[in-house]
Amino acid sequence: MNFWSHGLKEDLACVGVWTAVVISAAHTLGMYKPLLVGVSLVAMLAACDSTVPAVRPSVTMPPISASPIAASPSPSPSVSPALPVFTVDGGGPYQLGADFTKLNADGKLAEVSTSNELCGPHLNARGVAPWQDIRVSARTSDSKLYLVINRSATIATPSGAKVGMTSAQLKAIYGAAGEELTVNSAKAYLVKTPSGNGLLFDFDVSTKKVLAIIAGNATYLKDSFTNGSDYC
Q1: DSSP code of residue 227
Q2: What is the pLDDT of residues 104-156, one digit of tens each?
Q3: Which residue(s) pair with 91 in the sheet?
């Protein structure tokens, strides 16, 4: 489009509008027509001067950062160490069937003895931290753990049972899976599993609370308790 042609059209349109306004005013004022027409023409030309640029408001743009600010990485959540758990197979490295001699060589045993008054030649030992309240037994014939005893009040079973609980609490946890055993004043609570292993909860005669949790073959545990064989 030709710039000058476009500007001329705008000027003519503007003049036409102002001319109509002036003529209308002149008819109204009568005798003051010449003066009004002269003054109005001057104002009209000034108003229609397309050479005067329109004043536009300035717009202040916000400053643009040269580089985006990198978001700081979120800290990784801390992972709590797994709590020791005692199962029908034992706890930690002290699992039924584990080699007593190897555990001893690896520094996993303390207070090792090779005999006791009740069972004769026998392998017995205590665990090391955090399993220092664990006792293990193995026969000298094969050196395999067949009994793991937990006396810790902080090492619970997967179901939450632990030393210090009452018979009622164990029943609430295990229900029909548990069996009460009584020999004179001694009491115990046996939990069997399909694997054949089990947990025997041995009660303190005076407090009526769990004194120890013993992992081993379920049938062997029951026979040893009812027959008083001292788990030899």
Answers
A1: H
A2: 999 999 999 998 777 888 999 999 999 999 999 999 999 999 999 999 999 99
A3: 86, 94
CA distances to 9, 13, 44, 53 from 4, in Å: 9, 14, 20, 15
Per the structure, the count of domains in the chain is 2
User: Could you give the strand order of the β-sheet that contains 90-91, starting from the edge strand earlier in sequence?
Assistant: 86-87, 90-91, 94-95
Which of the given ranges, 1-5, 54-58, 196-200, has the highest pLDDT on average?
A: 196-200
- The mean pLDDT value for 208-232 works out to 94
Decide: helix, strand or coil at residue 16. Answer: helix
Q: What is the mean pLDDT of residues 87-95?
A: 98
- 71-100 average pLDDT score: 79
SS3 142: coil
Q: Is 129 helix (H, G, I), strand (E, B) or coil?
A: coil
136 contacts 116 by C-beta, under 8 angstroms: no
How confident is the model at residue 124, as a pLDDT?
A: 96
State yes or no: cis peptide before 130, omega within 30 of 0. yes
- In sign, the C-alpha dihedral spanning 16, 22, 27, 33 is negative
- What is the DSSP secondary structure assignment for residue 31, as one 8-state letter? G
Q: Which helix (H) or strand (E) holds 39?
A: helix 33-47
The answer to whether residue 118 is domain-embedded is yes
Q: Are residues 28 and 111 in the same domain?
A: no
**Structural contact between residues 200 and 190, judged by C-beta atoms closer than 8 angstroms:** yes
Q: What domain range is 42 assigned to?
A: 3-47
